[in-house]
């Protein structure tokens, strides 16, 4: 009889402890700013996710009180009335994190999905520069969306890692918060290159005559993939800009001369396109945001062959538009092999010099 009583008491106290934890656990959506939380308590309690998930649904509507917008299905976001904006201290704020590329690395998907976090205000801002001054930076900030005092302002531009690294370095030195963090998505450079080529081919068709010639010259576009990436001897041309953008180790080396490694998160764009959830969790931790993303927030779409967002409080975001995830053309095996042979030693530098170990490094 005593044993039964003792078991009963143990069960009851376990139940009460769990309930207490759920009640006392700070709700990610209710913090005062994106950093005001004990991250480890969340991380170690992820096993409570079925309970948190329920809280998350309720919390999310509260969490939306952190934003400056109203979100409706099939509509662009709507700015809240002025009284709400001033209550939430909404303004255009300089970013505390930047997604810097690479071009075609999956930056748009990262921007759209990371921007679903209630404590993130992701601006798809206009590209800054080429001159980086107080005035151009102020203009740049004007292109941002509103960010409340409880949110982290995040923006980025896919070319910042390569084409615009000089501008990025100036921005880091003189204009951005000292604790700024960078997110870099690296994708298999051969896939990146093909994606870039497909993208440029679709844009080229919008131009005619002289305009088209100018654009082709600017992009180094020569009609076919062969002509664009190979030199007269049939070797991969490292000076073709579309090829050069995939030499990640070179750009990473110069980036790390300006910013400590611990302030840069490098993620695998290939892995992200297959499943964004685990990488978003890493990004959340890196940015010291309260955990928000859950597995059920992303559903695989058989038609798109990508995961699309599925978050009740953000009916405005689902799949990316048809300009992302385009079908790649068939490429002769010989050319594919040449490209992999060309990139392999450069990829291996990523492992040797920076300890990165993505599955595509040795392809
Ligand atoms: N969820 C989801 N939906 C659609 N597409 C996705 C997604 N996640 C990653 N991707 C990959 O993103 C690639 C485009 O990269 P970017 O957005 O960086 O391109 S850009 O530089 O901003 O033009 C795009 O490249 P392509 O497939 O060549 O179009 C996709 O492979």
TrEMBL record:
Residues that coordinate or bind 3'-phosphoadenylyl sulfate: 187, 195, 307, 324-328
Residue span, Sulfotransferase domain: 95-344
Transmembrane feature ranges: 7-25
Any GO MF annotation of the entry: [heparan sulfate]-glucosamine 3-sulfotransferase activity
Keywords recorded for this protein, A-Z: Disulfide bond, Glycoprotein, Membrane, Transferase, Transmembrane, Transmembrane helix
Organism: Strongylocentrotus purpuratus
Cross-referenced InterPro entries: NST/OST, P-loop_NTPase, Sulfotransferase_dom
Organismal lineage: Eukaryota, Metazoa, Echinodermata, Eleutherozoa, Echinozoa
UniProt name for this protein: Sulfotransferase domain-containing protein
